Amino acid sequence: MTAEPDYRHGTPSKTGVLLINLGTPDAPTAKALRPYLKEFLSNRRVIEIPRPIWWPILHGFILPFRPKQSAEKYALIWMPEGSPLKVHTERQTALLAQSLQSNMTTAPVVEYAMNIGSPSVANVLNKMRNEGCDRILVIPLFPQYAASSTGAAMDAVFAALEQMRNMPAIRTVKQYHDHPGYIAALAGNIRDYWNQHGSPDKLIFSFHGVPRKTLDKGDPYHCFCHKTGRLVAEALSLSSEQYQVCFQSRFGRAEWLQPYTAQTLEDLGRAHTNRVDIVCPGFVSDCLETLEEIAIEGKKIFTEAGGKEYHYIPCLNERGDWIETLTDITRANLQGWLEPEPSDEVLEQSKQRALAIGAQK
Ligand SMILES: C=CC1=C(C)c2cc3[nH]c(cc4nc(cc5[nH]c(cc1n2)c(C)c5CCC(=O)O)C(CCC(=O)O)=C4C)c(C)c3C=C
Ligand SMILES: [Fe+2]
Ligand SMILES: [Fe+2]
User: Fold this and answer.
1) Nearest CA to ligand 1 atom 31
2) Does the annotation place 289 within a ligand binding site?
3) In this predicted complex, what is the ipTM?
């Protein structure tokens, strides 16, 4: 159990909102990548291979080499303020807090945590609880639920609660892959880009992949990604030939969700497609997977295969309509928690009812 403040009668209870993102290394170096990758790839939600098989692979083949390779990629996209994923998550947190302050009579405390690395879910939840948050709404920053992203974030929340004697009440948001505000923000982002740079022959929606086996075992992620893609395409009035949903970031040799983004880009390049635009709706913040794998690597694959123009459309990041959607999702899930306390009259009536029930015995 973690140490906790003494309970004090009459302490006003606060409400908190905790945004959770995946996590990122502290620096673009092999030294910082090693513990990050070790923690990430030791999670049973992420790697479902039995430990006696996975452990030698992780320690013998991945951890000796991947930290250096990944660090070189992170170095290409690192911002002066730090890792893009963290920078955008911090900005979104501050903007959401600001927006809730101007949209609610009593604004909640807003914090963010990372499922891997820092600030950890356990530390931030403890801090919020110690500051008096007795009710916490958890919003993972993954619009499409997957066991390896949202599921793992929820595990971290419940593991932290397990260590608390005086737990806060918890509400969780599972997903918002078809939230009208999220779809409109994605479509608006693409439309704004096209108004400035012209439009492509084909739009690719690239989502982070997961092992194909997880779909067979009941993970709904694949369906949610397709629904997001379809709704955004409808909002943009695209025909089915004008867009495609693909999956990126395959890890290891097992089959992942198909079609693979890299293969699709190569095929489109070989077919001498004039212009491809690509957007990553499953990431609300730009990060390694979008800025390096899609914007840099993807362009290389497409153009080297024979394609002409390649445009990467940035994530929602700090767009106003996305922050408004996050505000709507938060407010909808705070209903009942930040309503005014029941009046003395209502409390008196409840007391009388309780007395009447007691008197019946
Ligand atoms: C959008 C949701 C994500 C899902 C689902 C997801 C599943 C998943 N990821 C890996 C392996 C790696 N992912 C890595 C980076 C990474 N992954 C996500 C999101 C999802 N992953 C993000 C936002 C990031 C970028 C973090 C950043 O710092 O910018 C990495 C680390 C980088 C690297 O070395 O390539 C790995 C490894 C698996 C195996 C998996 C599902 C089973
Ligand atoms: Fe990932
Ligand atoms: Fe990747």
Assistant:
1) 37
2) yes
3) 0.95
